[in-house]
Predict the 3D structure of the following.
Amino acid sequence: MHRTPDIRDCLLEWVRRQTAPEAAAWVEGQCTALAEGAPPRVLFLDFSGALRRTGKAQLHLRPEDLARADRLRPAWNPAGWTTDQAARIALVLSWPFADADAYVATLDQIFQSADLGELVALYQALPVLPHPAAHVRRCAEGVRTNMTDVFKAIVHGNPYPCEHLDEAAWNQMVLKALFVGVELHPVHGLDARKNPALAKMLMDYAAERWAANRAVSPELWRCVGPFADDAALAAMGKVLAEGEPAERHAVVLALRNSPGEGAKALLARHRVGLPPGCDWAHLSPAATAPQ
């Protein structure tokens, strides 16, 4: 259950802590006005104008702030949010939300007129918006975007897709992340949502990349290992024999999560060791890119 007023107050406290007193007073005053029945145009103007009032400094959140966020909304991780984003979402959470249809209709208007920065704020706020089930279509639409910053706002550190997207939409999101070079390791719930259909899609994608003499992200294997069939095991064996170090390390991690005897046999045959502390974050595109 969402604790919308408490989440809004949390955001307001962070804004108050990091902005000038007059900026914080403006945000709090407008939140009060919206909660008391100000017309929609006030919300639209305030949402658009928040950046000019608060600036866009990154929020300095302490461990206790992040723990509080998780208590208010499990798996909500606002690390990386900025002052304008916190202010904008506090405003959105101040808008009366008892009528789900009316609330979503108002949000739709904000989405339709939002610029890039505003879209990032809205999409990363999906997990804390009231009426979560009403935003599934909006989330699915967002993962089809060509705007990388918006796509990352949905897929990185955001529990909403894992909790609400169906398998087909989830699988397409993961595949697109690989296709556009967005890291997988910050995707919330990636291991929980792995499935055989996704593994097959990723192997088909890998085959297309190899046929075009193009590299495959080491992170791909994370979603393949638990469901590796004979064809996947053959491909993984080839990577173990011929791949770059990061690729081989990724395959080892994946095979260690595969329950089949074929995976155990591959590991025994190749005996590729892992560097100390090696995990999926160390095998992401950013971590393995040439310096």
Notes: The mean pLDDT is 93. The chain has 16 helices and no strands.
